[in-house]
Amino acid sequence: MKQFAVIGLGRFGSSVATALARMGCQVLAIDSDAEKVEAIMDEVTHAIQADARDEEALKAAGIRNVDVAIVAIGENVEANILVTLIVKELGVKCVVAKALNDLHAKVLAKIGADKIVFPERDMGVRVARTLAAGNVLEH
Ligand code: ATP
Asked: Name one GO biological process term (predicted).
């Protein structure tokens, strides 16, 4: 079973972390906000309070053991970029990063993010497809 780390436990990150855990995956959840960590503690394998810009803290949390890291830090673009870079440099094979806009996505691609997601945009497309296919009542 794959091991995951989710960094940033806002609406998107916490949803990814709990969904993975419910599917039986090992999930390491990290946030700098103690309340966010406490709220998810019972749902995931490990929940740790740390500023993810702190490379030593990430190492101590065991980030190098995960197969996939999801960087779900939102508003703070600088932190999002730094953390993506650090996690990639620590050797995590697959890093998924949340982008706020196209320019941010370009930077993430240049520093080695393996997959870039735009949660609101991607979800909008999915909803539109479902609506256009007329399947909306089937779910
Ligand atoms: P969402 O839309 O998913 O709710 P958002 O775009 O509002 O997210 P933020 O709330 O800015 O994003 O960030 C998501 C989470 O990332 C927050 O819980 C915040 O505490 C956490 N976070 C921000 N910076 C760091 C950091 N340097 N280290 C760890 N966690 C961080």
From this structure: potassium ion transport
Rounded CA-CA distance 18/48 in Å is 15
pTM beyond 0.90: the answer is yes
Q: How many CA atoms lie within 13 A of 53 on its CB side?
A: 8
ipTM of the complex, rounded to two decimals: 0.95
Q: What are the tokens at 137?
A: 């009542």
How is residue 111 annotated by DSSP? T
The pLDDT tens digits of the residues spanning 100-128 come to 999 999 999 999 999 999 999 999 999 99
Residue 8 CA to ligand 1 center (angstroms) comes to 5
Ligand 1: distance of its center to the CA of 38 in Å?
A: 15
